[in-house]
User: Fold this.
Amino acid sequence: MKIIGLQENLKQALSIVGCATSKNINLPILGNILIRAKDNIELITTDLEIGITHQLRGKIEKSGEITIDAKVFGEYVSLLPNQKIEIITEEEGEEVEVNCENYKTRIKGQSAKEFPLIPSIKKENQFKVKRNDFKEALSKVVFAVSNNESRLELSGVLFTFIDNQLVLAATDSFRLSEKKIACQIENQNQEERIIVPVKTIQELIKILNNSIELTEDSQEVLIYISDNQILFCLNSTELISRIISGQYPDYKQIIPEKNKSRIILSRAELLRAVKASAIFSKTGINDVGLSCSKDRVLISAASGQVGESSVELEAKVIGDDNDITINYRYLLDGLNSIEGDKVVLEVIDANAPCVFKPEKDESQLYIVMPLRQ
Amino acid sequence: MKIIGLQENLKQALSIVGCATSKNINLPILGNILIRAKDNIELITTDLEIGITHQLRGKIEKSGEITIDAKVFGEYVSLLPNQKIEIITEEEGEEVEVNCENYKTRIKGQSAKEFPLIPSIKKENQFKVKRNDFKEALSKVVFAVSNNESRLELSGVLFTFIDNQLVLAATDSFRLSEKKIACQIENQNQEERIIVPVKTIQELIKILNNSIELTEDSQEVLIYISDNQILFCLNSTELISRIISGQYPDYKQIIPEKNKSRIILSRAELLRAVKASAIFSKTGINDVGLSCSKDRVLISAASGQVGESSVELEAKVIGDDNDITINYRYLLDGLNSIEGDKVVLEVIDANAPCVFKPEKDESQLYIVMPLRQ
Assistant:
């Protein structure tokens, strides 16, 4: 194999495919990148759950393939000058020669034959979303995924494709985050519901943040689904992942339909007040109280060891006076994910789930179960 | 006590004095800040080795003193709006009331009587250095301090005051860094040599980075010495520290006076080449080879597991061809600390200490013992 590419392209490609490599004592080749030069130059990695394939722009002088340690190669390439890099292997060789100007290296590799197969999916029944919408939406739900391993179905983000919308939802049963974005759906006969592992979502966010591609095509992400795999196509990068089997809880039924108090206030002020109050919440309980009455919300916390705090904020309160106690971590997560200057808080009572959402936007919802007092 | 100060001043003050607080199970009050309002408002912390006193600008409405948890108070104040903050305690009280606009808090404190005394030094025999010179110089030597606890005298930076110079030196016996700066010395009769603990130096660097004070006075640091303490005065902040007793090795004798090869090359290129080669150095040995011959230096490394690398750099070589093997970590530390575009490397042979220094600057020196081959 002999291929030639630009350092900046190779560096970006390695940081994209690097996501899916893993340290595995039984299968050390999973720490390697498969470099394959045939019709195109492809860089491929997998941790057996996720597979990433990236097409590298460059020139193939001789086809071939080899695998090489992702960390060593990535670190080395990132230090090279931004010039042409030559990557050469002998036929059947297990070493890669990398040359770039005055830098010459031989890196030990391993035969491509040892590398696991990446599954493939037929590209039919396409779902198409806007790249930026998708990236934002993923980051608005991923934090709410459960890290309790006993409920596997909650360890991923639920994708529901319905009525030209993609609805993303995640919950750990204490709080739930939901975000809807527009989605072009080909041949839709019925609703599709799929649970995508949280690790896949995290890698997807990294890749979406990493690969700045400004052509028209690159503004969209194409999604394809098979029985147990999901494929995301982002211009020159493809990520394939297993799907979590199992029944996602019917979360729609816990979304409150009514409320007794509707509070509208500055998101930044509430965020600051919750952070300051959190210092005085009880260790391990993390309780912060919110009390609303006419025109104001009082945020308060008290612990025997540290002291007590109260912050009064101006707010528009529609409906009854109300009190609720919430884990401040859930509050901060929610407030950080909601868009806009104002946040709407809908409360029934101290024991019912309460709802946070942006002021004039029905596409986003964050629901928290209060702490019982 | 009742004092009033601006949030931004208090926040800065707390981040400065916060350096010297410590978690101490036997003496939990060391995690507190002493707030004392008498002639001035002083914030004081100590870990029994270092004491920091900072004068806060503000108004004293009623004098008094109290101690309060540094972490809680620091975090809380950093979240407050940049407005006036009122700090109030009852006489003999053990609670602090903090009010700032719509934020009201009561924080548990502890009586000031329990707080350890900060030692003081007579302000005579002053040493005066330029603040920026001093900050830069400290950061150019501190990394070379030994972390081997069996040689206490190497666990600090040596300050030598002589001939209107302050000479800073640090070594861990594998490498040595020395930096000289101008110093106004009052009543100097003889050379003063003092070992300042590395922790003091680290806190001093933090404080120098933290407190941006732009008055004329604040451009200088005054230093005073007693038998077992050293005092640094930086405008509104004073840091007092114990001194390490013991005899610092006479390091001057290991500074080579001659060399066989003098190499001048780009510091940035050498840094990059060493970083790239480091990937291929042997684990635990960290060896990188430098070979100079006419007009060039070859940087190389090879490990059985990873592969091998060589980088050829243009250089001006005066004298013999030469080979030397160095721990790349020491090389990177030195190259990062040396100023200027070009670095000078002076080599005797593979077993003698070699010298790195800036091209046209005799104030700085970095010496490394090579790895024996």
